[in-house]
Specification:
Number of strands: 5
Largest sheet: 5 strands, parallel
Distance between the termini: 69 Å
Structural class: alpha/beta
Radius of gyration: 20 Å
Order of helices and strands: HEHEHHEHEHEHH
Shape: elongated
Strand order of the largest sheet: 3-2-1-4-5
Mean pLDDT: 84
Oligomer: single chain
Length: 206
């Protein structure tokens, strides 16, 4: 009996060590991917930018202006923020044509919320291909959560660079990558579940 207990104990220890080893190897791959991921500029019917990181909105609007997509959704904007407020912080001007093609999404407060908001917007405009713009540390999880709701829509990733959080120059970056890696694993394994948007949300997209 004692021998069986000892064997069971060692089995648990080795399994635990194996899990931590796999987790650690995955984290290293995730960090390398974050620092080096640089997809080509795609073309799609629509562009979606997820707010929260430097250069994201600017990058997405440049894609719109260069006609890589017909419409742009800026998802996760503060309820009191309007397009004119965003224009003030841009290093370039918007034309009236640009303004007519931009939608501000005020409902999302998380990546799951971005996915719901994007699904509603894509449904409204009948879009079957989207460019997803966000920071490199966030793009993998964003694609996983978006694809859950947009299973009939082709998603193309595009990374907004020049975000200080993407470097390893300070401890905050390590903590950010650590948290984002675990969130990605949770989304990939289904621990984070994204539900489909309700019909009443579809009516809120202008």
């Amino acid at each position: 009996m004692n021998k069986l207990r000892l064997q069971s104990k060692w089995t648990i220890i080795w399994v635990t060590l194996g899990v931590f080893l796999l987790w650690g190897m995955g984290f290293i791959v995730f960090v390398i991917d974050t620092l080096t991921y640089n997809p080509a500029i795609p073309n799609a019917q629509g562009i979606v930018v997820l707010t929260g990181g430097a250069k994201r909105i600017e990058t997405a609007i440049k894609l719109l202006q260069s006609n890589h997509g017909k419409y742009l959704l800026i998802s996760g904007v503060e309820p009191t923020t309007h397009l004119v407020d965003l224009e003030r912080i841009l290093p370039f001007a918007l034309t009236q044509q640009d303004r007519n093609r931009i939608t501000l999404g005020h409902n999302a407060t998380s990546t799951m919320g971005n996915a719901v908001e994007t699904a509603a917007w894509a449904h409204y405009y009948h879009l079957d291909s989207l460019i997803i713009v966000t920071s490199s540390y966030h793009i993998r999880r964003a694609l996983v959560e978006m694809q859950t709701l947009l299973d009939n829509v082709k998603l193309y990733p595009y990374v907004a660079r020049n975000d200080k959080k993407e470097t390893l120059s300070h401890l905050h970056s390590i903590r950010l990558l650590f948290l984002e890696y675990n969130k990605f694993l949770a989304a990939y394994t289904g621990l984070i579940h994204t539900t489909r948007p309700k019909e009443d949300l579809l009516q809120n997209i202008p």
